[in-house]
Amino acid sequence: MNEPRGPILQLAGVTKRFGGLVVLDGLSLTLPRGAMQCILGPNGCGKTTLFNVVTGEFAPDGGEVRLGGRNVAGLSPYRISRLGVARKFQVPGVYPELSVAENIEIPLAAGAGRYGPLSLLGYRPDRVRRDRLLDLCGLAGKADDKVGEIAHGEKQRLEIAMLVARDAELILLDEPTAGMSGAETSAVASLIRRLRDEEGKSILVIEHDMNFVRQLECPIVVMVRGKIVAEGRYEEVSRDPRVIESYLGKRH
Ligand SMILES: Nc1ncnc2c1ncn2[C@@H]1O[C@H](COP(=O)(O)OP(=O)(O)O)[C@@H](O)[C@H]1O
Ligand SMILES: [Mg+2]
């Protein structure tokens, strides 16, 4: 992406409506390059829609979506993905019949212009990079295990490593700890922090598990009814009266 010094992602006055329902209501947000931010907000406030607008699934009805300084509003998901945006959905998109190591090799092959499970035929992946990614997601000891047989939390970590293998610069994670135990949640938080600190990735995380949000150790934007209503570190946001009233109050 161009303009190496500018923010990687900038939303300005983004609006998205479904019929009469205003889901994103003039939303603005800036993610500096190499930074991580967490978007916290109640169910139905528009978080997933925000990701859908960034990835091009939906064109916004108004406003700008700037990636590396370029307005991408209205571009196709394919074009936006090729600009270096990778997204993790809630259900892991892994290949259950293949080994953990092969699951990493497929997106590494895609980075080299080869796609799909058959891409590995006759292709020798970068083993140093593969082993580095296996280490990052904590699965080095399970490299040869069949992915269909590893735990749910391990599949989620593997999929995050697969996004990184594609060499995306901006990574979007939508509730990456859904359905996980406390220990699995901590392992995912640690992996995501390492992507920022060691791999230099820019990361947006949607989450509503406050324990996980605290462990991410990053700035938080609070979203209510399609707008950002508060921003700050965990300690600040969790004390903000508007946040307590509109969101946290229900959970304390
Ligand atoms: N494709 C769609 N068509 C119509 N309404 C939608 C669509 N996607 C989301 N919505 C509505 O937009 C609102 C916000 O949804 P969503 O972005 O999924 O919220 P969140 O991820 O914060 O839970 C909800 O009322 C939802 O029903
Ligand atoms: Mg959602």
Automatic annotation (TrEMBL):
Transmembrane segments: none annotated. Residues 9-250 form the ABC transporter domain. GO terms for cellular component: plasma membrane. One of its GO terms (molecular function) is ATP hydrolysis activity. InterPro entries: AAA+_ATPase (IPR003593), ABC_AA/LPS_Transport (IPR051120), ABC_transporter-like_ATP-bd (IPR003439), ABC_transporter-like_CS (IPR017871), BCA_ABC_TP_C (IPR032823), P-loop_NTPase (IPR027417). Pfam families: ABC_tran, BCA_ABC_TP_C. The keyword Nucleotide-binding applies. Keywords: ATP-binding, Nucleotide-binding, Transport. The keyword Ubl conjugation does not apply. It comes from the Bacteria. Belongs to the ABC transporter superfamily. This is Putative high-affinity branched-chain amino acid transport ATP-binding protein. It comes from Mesorhizobium plurifarium.
